[in-house]
Amino acid sequence: MAKDFYGELQLGILGGGQLGRMLIQEAINYNVNVHILDPDKNAPCRKLCNRFECGSLSDFETVYNFGKDLDMITIEIEKVNVDALEKLEDEGVVVYPQSRIIRLIQDKGMQKQFFKQNDIPTAAFQLISNKENLYETAIPLPYMQKLRKDGYDGKGVKKINSTAEIEQAFEEPSLVEELVDFEKEIAVIVARNDKGDVSTFPLVEMEFNPDANLVEFLISPSTLPFEIQTQADEIAKKIAEDLQIVGLLAVEMFLTKEGEILVNELAPRPHNSGHHTIEGNMTSQFAQHLRAIFNLPLGATTARTNAVMINLLGEPRYEGLAKYEGVEDVLAVEGVFVHLYGKKYTKPFRKMGHVCIINDDRELAIKNARWVQETLKVKA
Amino acid sequence: MAKDFYGELQLGILGGGQLGRMLIQEAINYNVNVHILDPDKNAPCRKLCNRFECGSLSDFETVYNFGKDLDMITIEIEKVNVDALEKLEDEGVVVYPQSRIIRLIQDKGMQKQFFKQNDIPTAAFQLISNKENLYETAIPLPYMQKLRKDGYDGKGVKKINSTAEIEQAFEEPSLVEELVDFEKEIAVIVARNDKGDVSTFPLVEMEFNPDANLVEFLISPSTLPFEIQTQADEIAKKIAEDLQIVGLLAVEMFLTKEGEILVNELAPRPHNSGHHTIEGNMTSQFAQHLRAIFNLPLGATTARTNAVMINLLGEPRYEGLAKYEGVEDVLAVEGVFVHLYGKKYTKPFRKMGHVCIINDDRELAIKNARWVQETLKVKA
């Protein structure tokens, strides 16, 4: 569809954070008119779009009115009013990813049932309505309790170690999930356009910050055995096809100590596990998302070199106007790319930016990344 | 200086065309607040900045008022009111490139005298006040007449073949220049920051569209002999140092059939001959310009692969609302990056975008670029 739209296409993005910001950086190349809806009047995208509207993403009227004169809507966050998106779809606005997929993914319980119904390997689970159900669950202790809705970036997730701890469990409808003793967290980003073309980015490996439960360190491409890479790739493609999604889908997986792959969760949009693609791969995840939703040919995803991505998180104990330390130092090193997200205020573990470190020498890329991590700080 | 400014720096750009647009794409990574002044209310940057002001770049009051509350000003076009910039500099606004350099480069006559005074190789020339002087010039026919001021993109340049043609020559103060029988046009982009660090991008080779006198085809890196590359590189560095410029400087040169390098002209800003650096080099020219004016360490300029850049010019005979043909076709080829400039209207030879074609196989990059050139068209 995009062919006739260059310069005229009115694209709405629900959410105006860093993902929207990086999507805009790429959308500029396609002459797209971008409209942003975000509840934060200081959102990172506020000054970079044709129209910025400050409003709730969960409110039916707000989302519907924002979208009704647009050609196309996409998201950079799943927590949006899906009823409004459905109505917009009915009225002819193109919504990618489709509203039914956002609805499915908003609910971790429905996500898990989808995995089960489609033979997608995932950790054993049970859905519960309230805390009381935990006393009867068949999932052995310790296990994870995850709120079915509104959890993100490690929020809404609790590890329950003993019956005594059930007291402190979430009261709301949840997913109880077997604790996976994983070797590594891995991810594949897959894209699908409306023609049905499907393309995956090379597998990446991640390390998490145990305090913040956020991706802290990502390496691309993975050097795991070929069979693991193929299997992860095939799982991601199968999910994209089972869902018939149009757009990008990040598939986060566990690699268990036994070499088994279990799908953890999905994000139907550009994702933190794909930021390295800007410098590291032939096509960036943001370009790929646009190609997919505009039904253009998908771009080559080949890794151009080794890339390590680190999130630049607000330092613990600092809150207020953001100040950046060490930017000059890290920019002096070859292959270091700093992306700041335009957030005025920092707080502990807030995602303030990311850094991509590339090098043809993989060990050097990792070494430089560790050093950047120690050197670059966001304080207040 | 930039260190303390992230998120707070107010950067003005004189001109809101494609160069400003690509500068903004990069400035987003540094949390810079961008203010744009451009006479065209439909300028490519209009919706991508903190503040867009529609006004004349040549008017003293307009430029002065635009700049007086900013921290820093840079340019994406030389034709700006330099008196206003000088006053702003006096009042403490940082202007990079410095106003004296813009003044020098605005006048092709002063530029040539600067080359002469600094032993920079350039074609023989004479400055004339009016057409009559042409009858007495010592420069042998045929020669080039170039207006001292306001010429750009091939405008303000005439080839005079015979005494009879002097009739049709420009009346205004001009530069008469010996016709250079060149083998190739080549260019080096050099950057210098306020600490005095100087860094050059690898030499590139260009082909011009003879009808439009615009760069049409550029190859990076050059495969010319090492001595030529070194010599071109040294000339560019010397000019940056002689000028003590802060920012980017594009140095366009002729390589004569005798293997001599002659400097043609300078542009103190990101330049058409550096667009390939976005995908082709470790640091893009836009990132490098920002690093230079913010007095940050300059980035590595290494070529990551072979890159061919072609300008996407409005097709002859078409004028009006731009329509793009062949975008889907070219995006289906690996290593093809389309940059559209957000211009609503096309006219013959108007720069509507550019395409960068990368490939580790140089011949394939060139072949793909030729094919893109035949396939991608801007019509109305």
From TrEMBL, chains A, B:
Top class in the EC scheme: ligase
InterPro entries, alphabetized: ATP-grasp (IPR011761), ATP-grasp_carboxylate-amine (IPR003135), ATP_grasp_subdomain_1 (IPR013815), PreATP-grasp_dom_sf (IPR016185), PurK (IPR005875), PurK_C (IPR040686), PurT/PurK_preATP-grasp (IPR054350), Rudment_hybrid_motif (IPR011054)
UniProt cross-references to SUPFAM superfamilies, sorted A to Z: Glutathione synthetase ATP-binding domain-like, PreATP-grasp domain, Rudiment single hybrid motif
Coiled-coil zones: none
Protein's pathway: Purine metabolism; IMP biosynthesis via de novo pathway; 5-amino-1-(5-phospho-D-ribosyl)imidazole-4-carboxylate from 5-amino-1-(5-phospho-D-ribosyl)imidazole (N5-CAIR route): step 1/2
Cleavable signal peptide: none
GO BP terms, alphabetized: 'de novo' IMP biosynthetic process
NCBIfam families: PRK06019.1-5, purK
Name of this protein: N5-carboxyaminoimidazole ribonucleotide synthase
Gene source species: Sphingobacterium corticibacterium
Gene name linked to the record: purK
